[in-house]
Design goal:
Elements (H helix, E strand, L loop, with lengths): L3 H5 L1 H5 L8 H6 L21 E2 L2 E2 L3 H13 L4 H10 L9 H13 L7 H10 L3 H12 L8 H13 L3 H13 L8 H11 L3 H13 L6 H13 L3 H13 L5 H13 L3 H13 L7 H12 L3 H14 L5 H13 L3 H15 L5 H13 L3 H13 L6 H13 L3 H9 L1 H4 L5 H13 L3 H13 L6 H13 L3 H13 L6 H13 L3 H13 L6 H13 L3 H13 L6 H12 L4 H15 L4 H13 L3 H13 L6 H13 L3 H14 L4 H13 L3 H13 L6 H13 L3 H13 L6 H11 L4 H10 L8 H13 L8 H11 L4 H12 L3 H13 L6 H13 L7
Antiparallel strand pairs: 1-2
Helix pairs in contact: 4-24, 7-9, 8-9, 9-11, 10-11, 11-12, 11-13, 13-14, 13-15, 15-16, 15-17, 16-17, 17-18, 17-19, 18-19, 19-20, 19-21, 21-22, 21-23, 23-24, 23-26, 26-27, 26-28, 28-30, 30-31, 30-32, 32-33, 32-34, 33-34, 33-35, 34-36, 36-37, 36-38, 37-38, 38-39, 38-40, 40-41, 40-42, 41-42, 42-43, ...
Family: Belongs to the PPR family. P subfamily.
Keywords: Repeat
Organism: Quillaja saponaria (Soap bark tree)
Length: about 850
């Protein structure tokens, strides 16, 4: 029922409908104005617009046209009556005073009570208790006495509402106050128990009446007969029919009930024969008999037979067919034959002038609305207006939904805001459509206002509508309204989904209202609502940003108890926050104790705390955890050793790192990963001298350093202008048989742009080796070209090809080549930039900075 996908495309979807002769064109001459903005204001003054060169009515004019049609109901008096009946005076007066106030207010309306008027009021009502209150009030007014018809009306209302206990109380109360009513007392009781689904009681009362020499009148006989058929008491049905025939009460209602009885017994052939017999005998039928049989045939999925019966009786012209037509249309629609129903309707309108009642129109427009057939729906609405069909609440709600679905939310909102003028009571579907469409249109405040009104009217939105509005409120940062929405939901026993709570808490955390988010989370815990993993992550990160590591740590433990596994980065974030608080050692120890007390200690758990302490630059805490592992009988693994070693290096505590390394060296042989960790860690803290010593030690012990070791050392040495040492490392790199990487080549080319002496170091240490053709010899030539020591006479494309033969190009390489060319040849640089893009390399910010700087350097400011 919800139209999120449609709403987002409503503007684009609507334009094909506005053709010259479309029903939407007829409705609003062809339409009303659309705003060209993405989020039009719903309350801006309407503007004229033109599609296909045709003038349009404004939204206000369309809304006024529908308001006039809705006002044709002219039920303001009935609305006032039920407004009074529904008024509660709790907290100010007792029940008796409230009752008196209602009586007084109704009396002041000056109502002229009659059977017809009372029936109209009862038929108009929707609330059972209000109908009962009016029935009671009317029965106590001087000059008016309830009739069998009014009693039957209130009994049917009670029966339809399935309030059997209330209905039985009503009948008992009627028995106790029989003297107050000037109606046939026994008839009312028999009718009452019959309608209440208590035929056995009704028959007992009927038997007592007959024993006393009393009898039912024609009306009561038929109510009893119909109730017996409804309760499948077919043996008694025949007895009552005979009684009716003996008393000469038989009429068209009797015959219709008899056909219904046969149909309920699945004796459809007999029912059809009975109907044909009535026609053959010349009985005057009112059409109700035919409609009962058509209804039964359709309910038994005998559509062709029902259609044939309708056609034959229509051709004979002996029976009014309006009721049968209406039922045939209803069943066609329910069976999925909407097109067939529309075709049937058009034929009957054209040939016979048939005009369906408002209920049949409602069935059609409701199904068209469900299937998004807006043109045909608009056509029917226009037809109803032109035919002066008085709309009811279903019609008005469907119209409201139509305007929402067609993207004309401003008209829908105007009708909604004027609902009190014509007694429109939006149903749940209309509220859902209106809220969803307003959210899709960006009118979040209006959507929220409509929601509050819907709750006040007793409607609570569907789960999807609630979710759409909640998402919109969170997205727009309207968190106070979102908070009110959640409170109202809980007050209405509606539990928002975990995803909705997650979005709300996330929005609160983004708005730095993490405490409010935590309070909501606590309330959910009280009702055993398990938060999602994402909710925990948002809360923990929010408290980390607020420097409340103690709460973040508590949530970290709680999320594990709820079945969520924290990531390594989450441990790091929480521990770093704890270590920034006062008494970090105590805070860290508390978290470790909580963790160990709630879960079985594992090596992975200890490693997570070592890693977190290292990132927090608290190596002493990392070492304590390392030693605790050993004391608790868990042997540290290589990962434990690497994390502890990195914790010292991150804090630049080189002596402690060396001491721990020696500690490990004494216990076992040091492998490649520990050496690599030491070299890379020393490079990151700019200690190239010590890193070189460890690299040489690795080589001396027969351990091959990783490529990352060489890359980090070369990068650090070049940044310190230790070019001889950097080139010497390349020679060593060559000895271990590794291919030169793009990273190493890019480092040398980058530094050669600003330091020509790097080429001198290269020639000094590799002069003899570079005489043989190799990638490294090519790299030496490129360093010379980039540093300016070698004059390049080759074409730009050839130079690019040379680089590609040396190592794979990337965006970084292109940037350096662009920088080199932009020093002297800006046109060549532009040509290279274009070719770089054609090859699929994505320019970055440095790329554009180089090009712009080059244009300014060459005085070409207009290009820059």
């Amino acid at each position: 029922m919800l139209l999120l996908k449609h709403v987002t495309k409503s503007r684009a979807f609507l334009f094909p409908l506005f053709t010259l002769n479309s029903p939407l064109h007829n409705l609003i001459s062809t339409t009303y104005c659309f705003s060209s903005s993405a989020n039009p204001s719903l309350f801006s003054a309407p503007r004229s617009a033109s599609i296909h060169g045709i003038d349009r009515l404004t939204a206000d004019e369309v809304a006024d046209s529908f308001k006039d049609w809705f006002r044709s109901r002219n039920n303001a008096l009935f609305d006032k009556i039920y407004e009074i009946l529904g008024t509660q005076l709790e907290g100010k007066f007792d029940q008796f005073a409230s009752h008196c106030a209602t009586d007084l207010a109704l009396s002041q309306l000056g109502l002229q009570l009659s059977e017809e008027f009372v029936l109209e009021v009862l038929n108009y009502g929707e609330d059972v208790l209000s109908c009962l209150k009016f029935f009671d009030w009317a029965g106590r007014q001087r000059g008016f006495n309830h009739t069998r018809a009014t009693f039957h009306a209130i009994l049917k209302i009670l029966s339809r509402s399935k309030l059997m206990s209330l209905m039985l109380d009503f009948l008992q109360n009627f028995t106790n106050h029989r003297y107050e009513h000037k109606v046939r007392f026994n008839d009312i009781l028999v009718m009452g128990y019959a309608v209440a689904g208590k035929p056995e009681v009704a028959l007992q009362l009927f038997g007592r009446m007959r024993f006393k020499g009393l009898d039912l009148d024609s009306f009561a006989y038929h109510v009893l007969l119909n109730a017996l058929v409804e309760e499948n008491c077919f043996d008694v049905v025949e007895v009552i029919v005979k009684q009716i025939q003996i008393r000469n009460y038989e009429n068209d209602i009797t015959r219709a009930i008899m056909i219904k009885s046969l149909c309920k017994q699945k004796r459809l052939d007999e029912a059809e024969s009975f109907l044909n017999g009535l026609l053959s005998s010349g009985k005057v039928l009112n059409g109700h008999e035919v409609s009962v049989l058509v209804d039964a045939l359709c309910k038994n999925e005998k559509f062709e037979r029902a259609g044939k019966l309708v056609g034959e009786l229509q051709d004979k012209g002996l029976v009014p067919m309006e009721r049968a037509y209406g039922l045939w249309i209803k069943h066609l629609i329910r069976a999925g034959g909407l097109d067939r129903a529309l075709e049937f309707l058009q034929d009957k309108k054209t040939l016979e002038g048939y005009v369906p009642d408002v209920f049949r129109y409602n069935i059609l427009i409701s199904r068209l609305l469900r299937e998004n057939r807006l043109e045909e729906l608009c056509d029917l609405l226009l037809e109803m207006k032109k035919g002066h069909i008085v709309p009811d609440k279903v019609t008005m709600n469907a119209s409201l939904c139509f305007f929402c679905k067609a993207g004309m939310v401003d008209i829908a909102l105007e009708l909604y805001n004027s609902r009190s003028e014509f007694g429109l009571s939006p149903n749940s579907m209309a509220y859902n459509y209106l809220i969803n469409t307003l959210c899709g249109d960006g009118s979040i405040d209006e959507a929220y206002h409509v929601l509050r009104n819907s709750i006040h009217q007793g409607y609570f939105p569907g789960r999807k509508t609630f979710s759409i509005l909640a998402d919109a409120l969170c997205r727009e940062g309207k968190l106070d309204k979102m908070k009110e929405l959640v409170i109202v939901a809980l007050e209405n026993d509606f539990m928002p989904s975990a995803a909705t709570y997650d979005k709300f808490i996330s929005a609160l955390c983004r708005a730095r209202r993490v405490e409010d988010g935590y309070l909501i989370h606590e309330e959910l815990n009280k009702i055993n609502k398990v938060a999602t993993r994402n909710t925990y992550l948002n809360l923990i990160h929010g408290f980390n940003k607020s420097n409340r590591g103690d709460i973040a740590a508590r949530l970290l433990i709680e999320m594990q108890e709820k079945g969520h596994t924290p990531t390594r980065t989450l441990y790091i974030a929480v521990i770093c926050c704890l270590c920034d608080m006062e008494n970090p050692e105590i805070q860290f120890s508390k978290l470790l104790e909580m963790q160990l007390s709630r879960r079985e200690a594992t090596r992975q758990m200890y490693n997570s705390f070592i890693n977190g302490a290292g990132h927090a630059k608290k190596p002493e805490l990392a070492r304590q955890v390392y030693e605790m592992m050993r004391r608790n009988g868990i042997q540290p693994d290589l990962n434990s050793e690497l994390l502890t070693l990195r914790s010292y290096l991150k804090s630049e505590k080189i002596s402690d790192a060396l001491s721990f390394f020696n500690y490990l060296r004494e216990r076992r042989k040091i492998g490649r990963k520990l050496y690599n960790c030491m070299v890379i860690g020393l490079c990151k803290i700019k200690r190239s001298d010590v890193a070189l010593e460890f690299l040489r030690e690795m080589r001396g012990n027969g351990v091959t350093p990783s490529i990352e070791c060489y890359e980090n050392l070369v990068q650090l040495l070049c940044s310190r202008k230790s070019y001889l040492a950097a080139v010497d490392l390349i020679n060593d790199y060559e000895k271990i048989g590794r291919s030169i990487t793009s990273f190493l080549c890019n480092i040398f080319l980058l530094h050669s742009l600003g330091a020509p002496e790097i080429y001198d170091a290269w020639v000094h240490l590799r002069g003899e080796k570079d005489r043989e053709s190799s990638r490294l010899s090519t790299l030496g030539l490129l360093i010379g070209a980039f540093s300016g020591r070698i004059k390049v006479n080759q074409h730009l494309k050839s130079l690019e090809d040379v680089i590609e033969k040396c190592f794979p190009l990337d965006t970084y390489t292109y940037n350096m080549l662009l920088r080199r060319l932009s020093m002297n040849e800006m046109d060549s640089a532009c040509e290279l930039f274009n070719r770089m893009c054609q090859k699929g390399y994505e320019p970055n910010r440095w790329t554009y900075d180089i090009i712009v700087h080059g244009f300014f350097k060459h005085g070409r400011t207009s290009r820059g």
